[in-house]
């Protein structure tokens, strides 16, 4: 039986949303009615937190459907519900009467209870960031701005989710693309000519970008994608930037980036800029070599095909010539290699690897959920069960620690990228002592199976799958008392305390497993022959890890630079348009030419800028720095053997890095696992060594 059931109708969804609003309002009202001389931590702060936990458990039932529901009316209603609930959370933390009561609590009485003392500190921080330290007039303006921001961010996301842009291309125009992918596309016949319908969703964009041999085809898809939602999301983004800046300055910050970073590990814009400058310097030589290597391939191909060579690397050239480089220099053909990675088998093996290194057990729960291909699993703490011997076998349910869903394939109206969405946080119910178990959904957009073959994964898709499942385990590990300290991110409206520039650290660290020969052997089984990936191919694949790494980081830095500039420069003082800034950063920092077309605006498709990563796209590189540092503990032992499958060390990682959630400062989690101060040394070596 499913631990949660999404609403099937607009009416059911709206009723849940209204109940959440009532719970939040009632929780605050309960705090206010306590007589002043009777107020304690228990009947104020903890009552407020319990209401938040209860609301958090319900609210994603009426917000998550916006990302996945089959019924468009329900998706639209879920988007509206999220606006309502974000306003409800803002209303809670803008209540000055509650703030005064909480701020007068005696934190000295919590000297031996670090988690509740931290709860008090973080709760007060939420109230202050909602303007409770401002004049009433300024706070009211702040709340009005926040409401507008919420509405516009959700409209931005909805526009992308509901977009149905597609272009028609012939088989000749898609020369180079695999028959396996083409066979999964819908077709349309016009004047006796058969066309393939290529969408602007991730699987189609990547297949064309990596495999279509005609530059005109790649350019057409690239330009069309950059035109998606430009007339709707372009103006929304401009408005968001203005509103965010005004809100930040009302709270006393110089700009929106300063506001966002104030509660992150990096703390300041200057620190982030210095960090990014360091990467730029480190990769400069590698970036130049990467560009030259791809340009040389382009020149040779142009000569071979009789095309004119323009001497420039276009943005639509990059993935294509990287794939060609893999094939010609490293004998790595991703279209062939994916035949060794059927999704169902890879999924089961990934679960097996995670079960081993963290000492867990996963059990699928049969059933029908919101879509036919959605699956549900329960998670058990096998280490804890084993520790009590036969008694554990008799009472296995007591060792259940959470649930997760897989929703892995694209469909109309669904969120178009990869992520893990918390459906329910973990926390302890104060009256009963019961630990509420977490529930998350791994949302994917992998290529669907066809009539001829199962769903197959390229190596980079396996890395993404493994990464996202790291987030699943992060959520499953949390056994904190208060929901505020759970794994979460801005896809859900309820507040969380996990710094955004730590959120990706655990999963990026785990990506290292996908470059280990033993892991690749275990994951591979040809969908026809059942054979493992040949050893020479495994070794060749591993050698590609740093192929075009300079370009990869430069592209990431360019997007980060756009994000930071938009959220640090005073909007009225900005002279360039957003597309002009995007072009400038791409061409200056990456050194590739961005193809243009009518109405192109790459920022209009940039989910992150509307989903809580605004002024925080730097976190991917920042988290990678800490991830490389953490991985030093899993590097080879004294005899030269890797420790990636050492489940004693893996469980230590679970206990020290994942399980505490945000109940401990992120820097202290790193220190505890490393046994020393974190350093950028391992990341620096990765950036500079071939």
Automatic annotation (TrEMBL):
The keyword Zinc applies. Keywords: Hydrolase, Metal-binding, Metalloprotease, Protease, Zinc. Residues 216-685 form the Peptidase M3A/M3B catalytic domain. Binds 1 zinc ion. GO terms for molecular function: metal ion binding; metalloendopeptidase activity. InterPro entries: MetalloPept_cat_dom_sf, Neurolysin/TOP_dom2, Neurolysin/TOP_N, Pept_M3A_M3B, Pept_M3A_M3B_dom. It holds the Pfam family Peptidase_M3. GO terms for cellular component: mitochondrial intermembrane space. Its cofactor is Zn(2+). Signal peptide: none annotated. One of its GO terms (biological process) is peptide metabolic process. Belongs to the peptidase M3 family. This is Peptidase M3A/M3B catalytic domain-containing protein. It comes from Podila verticillata NRRL 6337.
């Amino acid at each position: 039986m499913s631990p949660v059931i999404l609403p099937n109708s607009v009416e059911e969804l709206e009723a849940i949303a209204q109940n959440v609003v009532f719970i939040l309002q009632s929780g605050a009202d309960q705090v206010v009615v306590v007589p002043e001389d009777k107020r304690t931590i228990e009947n104020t702060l903890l009552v407020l937190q319990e209401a938040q936990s209860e609301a958090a458990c319900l609210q994603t039932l009426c917000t998550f459907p916006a990302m996945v529901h089959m019924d468009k009316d329900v998706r639209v209603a879920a988007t509206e519900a999220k606006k309502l609930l974000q306003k409800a959370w803002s209303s809670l933390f803008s209540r000055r009467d509650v703030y005064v009561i909480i701020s007068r609590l005696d934190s000295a009485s919590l000297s031996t209870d670090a988690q509740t003392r931290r709860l008090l500190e973080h709760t007060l921080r939420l109230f202050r960031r909602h303007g409770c330290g401002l004049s009433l007039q300024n706070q009211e303006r702040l709340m009005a701005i926040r409401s507008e921001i919420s509405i516009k961010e959700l409209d931005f996301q909805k526009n992308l989710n509901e977009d149905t842009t597609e272009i028609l291309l012939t088989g000749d125009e898609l020369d180079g693309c695999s028959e396996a992918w083409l066979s999964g596309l819908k077709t349309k016949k016009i004047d006796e000519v058969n066309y393939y319908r290529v969408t602007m969703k991730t699987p189609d964009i990547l297949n064309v970008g990596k495999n279509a041999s005609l530059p005109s085809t790649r350019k057409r898809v690239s330009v069309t994608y950059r035109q998606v939602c430009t007339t709707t999301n372009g103006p929304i983004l401009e408005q968001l930037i203005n509103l965010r800046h005004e809100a930040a300055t009302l709270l006393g910050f110089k700009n929106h980036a300063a506001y966002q970073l104030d509660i992150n590990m990096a703390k300041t814009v200057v620190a982030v800029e210095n960090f990014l400058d360091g990467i730029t310097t480190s990769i400069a030589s590698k970036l130049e070599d990467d560009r030259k290597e791809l340009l040389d391939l382009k020149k040779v191909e142009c000569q071979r095909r009789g095309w004119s060579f323009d001497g420039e690397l276009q943005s639509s050239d990059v993935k294509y010539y990287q794939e060609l480089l893999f094939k010609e220099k490293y004998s790595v053909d991703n279209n062939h290699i994916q035949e060794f990675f059927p999704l169902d088998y890879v999924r089961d093996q990934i679960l097996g690897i995670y079960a081993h290194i963290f000492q867990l057990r996963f059990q699928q729960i049969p059933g029908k959920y919101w879509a036919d291909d959605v699956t549900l699993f329960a998670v058990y703490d096998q280490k804890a069960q084993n520790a009590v011997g036969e008694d554990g076998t008799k009472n296995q349910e007591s060792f259940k620690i959470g649930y997760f869903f897989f929703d892995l394939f694209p469909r109309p109206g669904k969120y178009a990228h990869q992520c893990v969405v918390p459906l329910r946080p973990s926390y302890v119910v104060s009256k009963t002592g019961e630990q509420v178990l977490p529930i998350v959904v791994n949302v994917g957009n992998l290529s669907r199976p066809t009539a001829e073959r199962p769903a197959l994964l390229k190596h980079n898709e396996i890395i993404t799958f493994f990464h996202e499942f790291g987030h699943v385990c992060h959520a499953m590990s949390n056994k904190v008392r208060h929901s505020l300290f759970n794994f979460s991110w801005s896809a859900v409206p309820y507040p969380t305390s996990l710094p955004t520039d730590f959120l990706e650290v655990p999963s990026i660290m785990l990506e290292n497993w996908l470059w280990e020969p033993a892991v690749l052997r275990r994951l591979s089984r040809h969908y026809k022959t059942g054979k493992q990936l040949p050893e020479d191919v495994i070794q060749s694949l591993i050698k590609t890890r740093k192929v075009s790494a300079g370009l990869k980081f430069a592209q990431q830095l360019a997007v980060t630079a756009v994000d930071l500039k938009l959220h640090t420069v005073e909007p009225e003082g900005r002279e360039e348009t957003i597309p002009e800034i995007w072009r400038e950063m791409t061409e200056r920092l990456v050194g590739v030419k961005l193809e243009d077309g009518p109405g192109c605006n790459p920022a209009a498709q940039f989910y992150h800028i509307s989903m809580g990563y605004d002024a925080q796209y730097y976190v991917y590189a920042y988290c990678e720095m800490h991830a490389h540092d953490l991985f030093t503990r899993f590097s080879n032992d004294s005899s030269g053997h890797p420790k990636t499958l050492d489940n004693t060390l893996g469980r230590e990682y679970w206990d020290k890095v994942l399980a505490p959630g945000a109940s401990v400062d992120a820097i202290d989690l790193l220190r505890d696992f490393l046994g020393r101060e974190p350093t950028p040394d391992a990341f620096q070596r990765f950036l500079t060594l071939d």
